[in-house]
Design goal:
By secondary structure, the chain is of the alpha+beta class. Helix content is 49%, strand content 26%. It contains one helix and five strands, in the order αβββββ.
């Protein structure tokens, strides 16, 4: 009889620890979502929106640090003028910011 009571108590303890495991896993996922996943997706959406709103004449900076002015907007790329007679074709994914107010440093 005593063995039966001890086995039932042990089974209840295992169920309790099993529930606490799942609760902790859910809490860890929630923390990851709110502190890592959500801010990153928000930042990506803002960046994508900026790229969609870029137009001819906007001054931009590429991922490689090249300053220029958008000459033409294509479906997947920009034609960017970086000097008087120098125009380069750059993927839209590599243009990161509007540099209309940015001042390149000179030495």
């Amino acid at each position: 009889m005593l063995n039966l009571i001890l086995l039932q108590a042990e089974g209840a303890a295992q169920q309790g620890s099993q529930w606490s495991f799942w609760i902790m896993m859910i809490l860890i996922f929630v923390v990851f979502y709110f502190f890592m996943i959500r801010p990153q997706t928000k930042k990506q959406k803002e960046l994508q929106e900026k790229r969609l709103n870029m137009k001819k004449g906007d001054k931009v900076v590429t991922a490689g640090g090249i300053y220029g002015e958008i000459k033409e907007v294509q479906e997947t790329a920009f034609l960017i003028t970086i000097s008087k007679d120098v125009t380069i074709k750059v993927s839209k994914d590599s243009v990161f910011e509007d540099a209309s107010d940015a001042q390149p440093t000179e030495k």
